[in-house]
Amino acid sequence: MTSNVHVVRAACPHDCPDTCALHVTVENGVAIKVQGDPDHPTTKGVLCTKVSRYTERTYHPDRLLHPLKRVGPKGAGKFVQVSWDQALDEIAARLTEIAARDPEAILPYSYAGTMGFVQGETMAARFFNKLGASDLDRTICASAGAAGLRYTYGAGVGMHVEHFVDSKLILIWGSNPITSSVHFWAIAQEAKRRGAKLIAIDPYRSLTAEKCHQHIALLPGTDAALALGMMHVLIAEDLVDHEYIAQHTVGYAQLKERAQRYTPARVAEICGISEETVITLAREYASAKPASIRLNYGMQRAKGGGQATRAVACLPALIGAWRDPAGGMLMSTSGFAPVDGLAQTRPDLRPVPDKVPRLVNMSAIGDALCHPGDASFGPKIEALVVYNSNPVAVAPESSKVASGFGREDLFTVVLEHFQTDTADYADFVLPATTQLEHLDIHKAYGHTYLLANNPAIAPLGETKPNSEIFRVLAQRMGWQEPCFLDSDDQLAEQSIRWADPRMAGTDWETLKRDGWVRYDLPEAPFANGGFFTPSGKCEFYSERMVQEGFDPLPDWVPPYESVASNPKLAARYPLAMISPPARNFLNSSFVNVDSLRSSVGEPTLDIHPADAAPRGIADGAGVRIFNDRGTLNAKARVTEKAREGVVVGLSIWWKKLAPDGKNANEVTSQQLTDLGRAPTFYDCLVDVAPA
Ligand SMILES: Nc1nc2c(c(=O)[nH]1)N[C@H]1C(S)=C(S)[C@@H](COP(=O)(O)OP(=O)(O)OC[C@H]3O[C@@H](n4cnc5c(=O)[nH]c(N)nc54)[C@H](O)[C@@H]3O)O[C@H]1N2
Ligand SMILES: Nc1nc2c(c(=O)[nH]1)N[C@H]1C(S)=C(S)[C@@H](COP(=O)(O)OP(=O)(O)OC[C@H]3O[C@@H](n4cnc5c(=O)[nH]c(N)nc54)[C@H](O)[C@@H]3O)O[C@H]1N2
Ligand code: SF4
Ligand SMILES: [Mo]
């Protein structure tokens, strides 16, 4: 028999800035290889370890292939197989009954398990809009930084990532790209070979910080102070670009006044670094031309995360770095995509069109699920439909999340690939397709391309795409609107305003054929201003922030929990814990892929020798990490990679695959950031003791 081999153009669905273009090799209907597209300018034929193993994930023996109904107690993971008809009928009946009392008692819970629009918020959003359900405030990752950027640049916009190769100085700030964005790291390496200096700004000597020329190990949650200290020096030593400031920024005089408060001596004390470090950093930043900043989300997971992003975002405008394509800053590029949000989500379907639905913050889902309901909160949450997310593992203050999910009177439906910690609490688990089995369209947040994902293989077992699950559920609900019959192809096409000049005449058919397209944008997007703010300038001072009741200037907002800002708490819990991503996991995805989990080993905690010794903790010993919110165990790694006073537990483990059934979110809090209502995962005091 001759084998039938062909290659399908696809896109990596994961929540990762790189959004790689994929080539999937299919032989006789079976996906046998997933590779990077060699022609895609940022993928360059290379994938990370996780996604090179994507077929292992798709064909994993534990894939959910049939609808399941719970038979045991919530959380026990006991289910029986049922037919799609039974599952859909029972789900539709229960949602109809709750909606008849109050549709806002129903809540979707989703995030970026896939970043695709079709399997994300298109058909699903239409479903919940038509129902009149509560809306989810999707804050769990990036909303603090997004708010900071929105007030400063007007949107999530920044440098084209390719141009970092020509930078002379790259500040890798709150980011560990060897783990979380390997394609950016490849570009930074090339810049290094061409003579660039790389500086990591990170409390932890991460894999990336280890490989940079310099590592500035500041205390968590102090980045805004460092940025304002740099401004202080830039202004005092007149290292700023007066012409760029005059033409393309707003509020320099006020910013100057604010920065005066941040003397290098004060900043050194706040950040736990030397005065010399602050001064030298500012001088080098002003003299290296072009200088760039790769800012990422690690530095916005503390109380002041929104303002910290804003403070850092002001730096490139102060020195006119935006004049050069290889100067400026990149935190997110997702605002460049000409997305048609209204066409995707159809808020016009809501039963009361002008009524804004009750908004529930996903980052405080524990408290929300435990709330009895009242006039200010709205109705008690009675039903939850989870897709593209694993909240029982990833949401903060896990004990509250688990007790919320454990409520016997809560009706929970989970669309999943695997029986996750969250799926264990479901009344119905519905088997979803993976990226190889469905169609999608993807924008990215770390580069400036739009990508298509063509399905490579037929759905395994009885799995269905999320879009199809909501489509058939809409039919069970008896809804007649034609938009509930739109195909995945139509959903993809409706997602983009193709006539936008940034699309340069590309259409959906062309994109499907070619796999990807670069937005038509200037190479140095803000060389001549043109920011997306109301003034069209980089707003050091934001009038919108005044109107919304915020401090209009960037400032350092101290953490909720740190030795300096909360000495009373620190007397009991003196160590700051951060829990950034582990290299071979993607949030909690891939933890159940055996080869990847065994490469990570077991949950670990990096602790400095000076913190370990007085506690009697030896390298390799079991430790207990605890605070008032909870406790978990890990294996200590006594190392100077963790700075004194800071402990690091790489994340995010599936709770049930950790020896003690717990993960770092036992100790994290549900407090929210200054801007964007985001979680404060890295604003968390703990103590550690031998287990
Ligand atoms: N392999 C892998 N890749 C991923 C993910 C994953 O789980 N695994 N997750 C994806 C997702 S959802 C996201 S949002 C991105 C995240 O991508 P990044 O935001 O780049 O996250 P990390 O790579 O963890 O880098 C965060 C770094 O910030 C540091 N940090 C912690 N607190 C502070 C602070 O207060 N200030 C400063 N300056 N640094 C701090 C941490 O020590 C860590 O090294 O990565 C994506 N890519
Ligand atoms: N302690 C601590 N907690 C954190 C973080 C941290 O750094 N430290 N990081 C936070 C961040 S940045 C983020 S973004 C969140 C991430 O949290 P989540 O968005 O919940 O991400 P994952 O844990 O990867 O879970 C995604 C789930 O979606 C499923 N999935 C993927 N594709 C599909 C699909 O097509 N259909 C369906 N139905 N399901 C699908 C996957 O199987 C997986 O179980 O976690 C946050 N939590
Ligand atoms: S997870 Fe990131 S680096 Fe890995 S293949 Fe996907 S987009 Fe590329
Ligand atoms: Mo994230």
Automatic annotation (TrEMBL):
Alphabetical list of PANTHER family matching this protein: OXIDOREDUCTASE YYAE-RELATED, TRIMETHYLAMINE-N-OXIDE REDUCTASE
UniProt cross-references to PROSITE patterns, sorted A to Z: 4FE4S_MOW_BIS_MGD (PS51669), MOLYBDOPTERIN_PROK_3 (PS00932)
Cofactor(s) of this protein: Mo-bis(molybdopterin guanine dinucleotide)
Lineage: Bacteria, Pseudomonadati, Pseudomonadota, Betaproteobacteria, Burkholderiales
Alphabetical list of InterPro entries matching this protein: Asp_de-COase-like_dom_sf (IPR009010), MoPterin_dinucl-bd_dom (IPR006657), Mopterin_OxRdtase (IPR006656), Mopterin_OxRdtase_4Fe-4S_dom (IPR006963), Mopterin_OxRdtase_prok_CS (IPR006655), Prok_Mopterin_Oxidored (IPR050612), YoaE_C (IPR037920)
SUPFAM superfamilies: ADC-like, Formate dehydrogenase/DMSO reductase, domains 1-3
UniProt keyword Transcription, yes or no: no
Keywords from the UniProt entry: Iron, Iron-sulfur, Metal-binding, Molybdenum, Oxidoreductase
Gene3D superfamilies membership: 2.40.40.20, 3.40.50.740, ADC-like domains, Dimethylsulfoxide Reductase, domain 2, Formate dehydrogenase/DMSO reductase
Domain 4Fe-4S Mo/W bis-MGD-type stretches: 5-62
Protein family per UniProt: Belongs to the prokaryotic molybdopterin-containing oxidoreductase family.
Any Pfam family: Molybdopterin
Annotated CDD domains: MopB_3, MopB_CT_3
Protein name per its UniProtKB record: Molybdopterin oxidoreductase
Metal-binding listed as a keyword: yes
